[in-house]
Amino acid sequence: MTRSFAQISLCVMIAACSDAGSGDAANESFAPRVDKAVYAAAVGHPARTSADRARDSARKPDQVLEFFGIAPGMIVLDLFSGSGYYAEILAHTVGDDGRVVAHTNEAYLRFVGDEFAARHADNRLPNVEILMAENNELELDAGRFDAIMMTLSYHDLYYAAPQEGWPKIDTVKLLAELYRGLKPGGTLAVIDHFAEVGAPRETGGTLHRIDPSIVVSELEAAGFVLDAKSDVLRNMNDDHGKPVFDPAVRGRTDRFVMRFRKPR
Questions:
Q1: How far apart (Å, rounded) are the C-alpha atoms in residues 245 and 102?
Q2: pLDDT at 5 over 90
Q3: Which pLDDT belongs to residue 33?
Q4: Helix (H) or strand (E) holding 79
Q5: Which domains does the chain have, with CATH numbers?
């Protein structure tokens, strides 16, 4: 079920800028060039809560969105939107002519409590649509999205708790739907917690981490092309063997950031 809202105004300007995030200019060739002021304005938007701002230093959303090439006017799907932290920043980034679709489901809504509902109450983010869809029932309009973001959620493809309303996900089906929903040349943006090298897929369900090589192999099998990686969220002090909710590492995990493309 989709609930639509009117659009929000934000004055932003596309312009040339230096290469983003990863520090590897050769890998930046397909990323749109957007003025850094766009991201600064989105992150600094006065409507953002103090709780969200407190997360910024660890999440570095301005650098992350610059690396992914999110630009004004884009239509972006925030898959498994969680509390909506990124959905709000995306809304301020894509601006007046853009659209954000914040996807969630019943299990995620229970997990985040009232935060998601409060964020979207009273038309706070008028250019955001809410998409309620269970894990194996996602249906996207073909070629609608310029970008799809999976933030700290790819590992959840291997989490299963049917008693909590989170059945085992048909990963092949879901990735095929994401591929179908992206425009040719569109971006699939992935951020997740590093697992130990060689860790099995099941680590996604136990530690809520995943070996990035699994992500690459599965997305390439689904037709995506790895465009670039960024080290912007690396933390070499993280223990990859600890669950991400362990107080020793929570909020400070070592994270990989990868940009994939749907070929034109």
A1: 24
A2: no
A3: 80
A4: strand 75-79
A5: 2-261 (3.40.50.150)
